[in-house]
Amino acid sequence: MQRLSPKRSLGFTLVELLVVIAIIGVLVSLLLPAVQQAREAARRSQCTNQMRQLGVALQGYHEAHGTLPPGQVSNRSHTTSGTCFSVTQQTAYAPWSVLVLPFLDQTALYDRFNFERRFTSRKDHVGSAPNSDLFNEHLGIYQCPTYPSGELEVFSSTYYAVMGGALTHADGSLAGTNDEGFVCTASGDTRGFSNNGVLYLNSRVRMSDISDGTSKVFMVSESRNVQVDTKSPGWASSLSIDGAWPYPIGLSSAIDPINSATANNVVRSSRGFGSYHQGGCNVVMADGSTHFLSENMDTFVYRKLGIRDDGQPLESAF
């Protein structure tokens, strides 16, 4: 008599299914960091390319006008150490980010600005229209793709012109007599203006003025200064007018270390570089080259790279 063998189940048992799910979970947990790293690498590469375009635009401006653009145009210039001009004394006009628009294929937008009107930070400030109405024009080239911009009501730039660097002794200690080398400070505050770099208040720096070497002087840096409301400065504003003492928008100096606490403070953003990239930030040198700076780089080197003509050029900056 022929025996019938029992039929084998063709499906998974519950235990086998749980094992497969566990294996998939492990694989995902292993792959996810790699995917995130790959995405950040792509964003950092895009950021580098955007900054390289800004460098080309600044050089194009120099070729057309014989000088680099002013970091900001103002009715006042800071030429000696002391207290900065107050909000009532100083009027802010066009910043570098607007002046280079024709060299970024944005002539139509450039022509919409009124250069006889103010470019102050507050969108609702009397006297800033029509310029303040353009602060929310989205120009991707002015914002790093890693920047968490989802909550921004006003489109802010993450790229700041470098107006100078701190005066520093060889041991890294600060040698400035007025708040680490600022040409003026806001009534003893930590905000201020430098003028020993290449893009500062009413500057007209020629490439020939950069005697320390164009490959060894900062021109543009990243900033992680976060702005989240309608009173925030847009990418085309040039001076904060909140409070009695102004501070520059879109300008920074090589004073505080990269990605230090300063980088998150709007008032102190003129004192250092920062970014949302892990471990450092991108910069553009005066020759148009781009580099990624480690947040652990030597402080003495970092600060000297902000100065255009101290007569002590570095043999090797990177």
Q: Tell me the radius of gyration.
A: 25 Å
Can you tell me the number of structural domains? 1
Quaternary status: single chain
The mean pLDDT is 78
Shape: globular
Number of helical segments? 4
Q: What is the percent of helical residues? A: 10-25%
In terms of DSSP E residues, the strand content is 5-15%
What is the string of helix and strand elements? Answer: HEEHHEEEEEEEEEH
How far is the N terminus from the C terminus? Answer: 88 Å
Protein name: DUF1559 domain-containing protein
Keywords: Membrane, Transmembrane, Transmembrane helix
Pfam families: N_methyl, SBP_bac_10
Explain this structure to me?
This protein has 318 residues and is of the alpha+beta class. The chain has one domain. 21% of the residues lie in helices and 13% in strands. The protein contains four helices and eleven strands, in the order αββααβββββββββα. It has a five-stranded mixed sheet with strand order 9-3-6-10-11. A two-stranded antiparallel ribbon has the order 1-2. Strands 4-5 form a two-stranded antiparallel ribbon. The radius of gyration is 25 Å and the shape is globular. The protein starts with 13 loop residues before the first helix and ends in a 14-residue tail after the last helix.
Could you write a compact summary of the structure shown?
The protein is of the alpha+beta class. It is built from 4 helices and 11 strands. It has one domain.
